[in-house]
Specification:
Blueprint lengths: L12 H14 L17 H9 L7 H9 L2 H7 L1 H8 L8 E4 L8 E5 L5 E5 L6 E4 H18 L4 H23 L3 H6 L2 E2 H8 L8 H16 L3 H8 E4 L2 E4 L6 E3 H4 L2 H18 L5 H8 L2 E8 L10 E7 L6 E8 L6 H4 L7 H12 L8 E8 L2 E9 L14 H22 L2 H8 L4 H29 L10
Antiparallel strand pairs: 1-4, 2-3, 3-5, 6-7, 8-9, 9-10, 10-11, 11-13, 12-13
Helix pairs in contact: 1-18, 3-4, 4-6, 4-19, 6-7, 6-17, 6-19, 7-17, 7-18, 7-19, 9-17
């Protein structure tokens, strides 16, 4: 990590407002409607194949199989494709800690350190300082694509995009009027979700929606290390071990010959020892009360498939006091070719610092470390709890009113995340009180959803022609 001091401007509120209005000359708000592929646009399959070169070869077909499932699944895995496209679109000079992959399936609930359930952005593999507009555009396009998958009419799809982006604009204007600490402490917990956005829910359906929210909260709360213990482990000769469910979950001893497996176990022991130093002292002490038990490779997500991801079983006082950590490889952000390299030499640290900056509350075991020796390479990892009250929305099947409420929560949350790291007054001033920006993004989202469908078709064609291999149904 660079030790050079980062200069911070302390402008007056008036100067920040003027800065935002001046940014309209750099990129007029209506210009964000523009989208068409450039003549030199890379083939989307080639972009995916470039990423595959650094991934576990036998897992790449699973990634392609998952992305083939639908245009929305393809979009979820195509952050690198869109990053290149966004680099050709109008942007202002206003920067934030960008998520880099802010599609609407990358929001959800999880347990905060005080054990309340909070709603927030939950994927930061691509986070890097960059244009705030890119996150909003990725969110907007994901709304259009998801609504098409729900077989919504074009007018309803556009209205849904407008709902999400309008909430971003209104929330940013609200944050612009708040003090720094008030913004920092702002968050959405389960009791606020429906209360804040219930105007989208019909009065007759309100009780049903409250029940649905309570069921989802109970389900999320039950997704913890104890649940992981029952779902992912079994007892072997009196010791807990991860089950074998290849290719999605494979214990270390099944992946490698015994000598190599022993080397990997020692590498991960050392990883845990060094990773502790990235935690706060009290959490470091807590981690030290657990002992190492077992490790396995676990396939996760859509876009992440093929990167190296491991689950580590630790045990407290007895076999019923587990802690399951996930060690996930962090590769360079897809934004890096267009906004510059991270100031952090370790991409795990890049992810963790970005997550802590964007989230209202983060996992108490969130940390990072670099590993030497896996595949004779240096690899960066970030670690966190595998399951800690995590829950995601069933976007495809939820009622329309609940979807609109969910989209408002996403728009509000993304604005809050940007307000923590960027100049919220300048961004709010740029957005203004008119609907110009959301109208432009609704048009952009329609055009980009069309492009995404063409890109998805190219992946399917490449598989059908045998140019690449996909493993479906996994």
């Amino acid at each position: 990590m660079s030790t050079a001091a980062i200069a911070v401007e302390h402008l007056s509120a008036g100067e920040r407002e003027a800065r935002g209005k001046a940014a309209r000359s750099e990129a007029p708000r209506a210009s964000h409607a523009e989208w068409s592929p450039t003549p030199t646009r890379a083939n989307p399959v080639d972009v995916l194949e470039q990423q595959a070169a650094t991934r576990v070869p036998e897992l790449v077909p699973i990634r392609y199989g998952r992305m083939m499932a639908s245009p929305f699944a393809f979009y979820r895995g195509g952050a690198a494709i869109m990053a290149a496209d966004l680099a050709e679109t109008p942007t202002t000079s206003l920067r934030v800690q960008a998520c880099g992959d802010a599609h609407i399936a990358n929001f959800g609930v999880y347990s905060a350190p005080d054990r309340s359930l909070v709603f927030d952005v939950n994927d930061f593999d691509e986070t890097l300082p960059g244009p705030w507009e890119w996150d909003v555009k990725r969110m907007a396009a994901s709304v259009e694509i998801a609504c098409r998958q729900r077989d919504e009419k074009p007018t309803k799809c556009r209205a849904a995009v407008l709902t999400a982006v309008r909430e971003y604009r209104l929330a940013m204007r609200s944050f612009a009027g708040m003090g720094n600490l008030a913004v920092w402490y702002s968050r959405l917990d389960e009791s606020q979700l429906l209360a804040r956005f219930d105007e989208e829910v019909k009065p007759k359906a309100r009780d049903k929606e409250i029940e649905a929210l309570q069921r989802a909260a109970r389900k999320a709360r039950g997704k913890d290390s104890v649940r992981a213990l029952s779902k992912l482990t079994h007892e072997v000769d009196g010791e807990l071990r991860f089950i074998s469910a290849p290719p999605l979950l494979v214990p270390i001893e099944e992946l490698l010959p015994e000598a190599e497996a022993a080397d990997h176990r020692e590498i991960f022991h050392e990883l845990l020892r060094r990773y502790r130093a990235t935690l706060a002292h009290d959490r470091r002490h807590l981690l030290e009360t657990y002992r190492y038990v077992h490790i396995a490779r676990k396939v996760v997500g859509v876009g992440s498939v093929g990167t190296r991801a491991w689950v580590i079983l630790l045990e407290g006082g007895d076999g019923q006091d587990p802690l399951v950590l996930q060690a996930k490889e962090a590769q360079p952000s897809v934004l890096e070719p267009y906004v510059g390299a991270s100031r952090f030499h370790n991409h795990g640290e890049r992810v963790v610092v970005g997550q802590r900056l964007m989230q209202a509350a983060s996992d108490i075991f969130l940390g990072w470390e670099r590993v030497t020796g896996l595949d004779n390479m240096e690899r960066d990892f970030y670690l966190r709890q595998l399951w800690d009250g995590k829950g995601s929305a069933d976007i495809e099947n939820m009622p329309h009113g609940r979807l609109l409420a969910y989209l408002k929560a996403c728009g509000w949350t993304l604005a809050r995340s940007h307000a923590r790291s960027g100049d919220r007054i300048a961004i709010a001033s740029y957005l203004g009180s008119a609907t110009t920006f959301e109208d432009a993004l609704a048009t952009f989202a329609q055009a980009y959803a069309d492009q995404n469908e063409l890109d998805h078709a190219q992946l399917v064609k490449a598989v059908d022609e045998g140019k690449i291999r996909a493993q479906t149904g996994i």
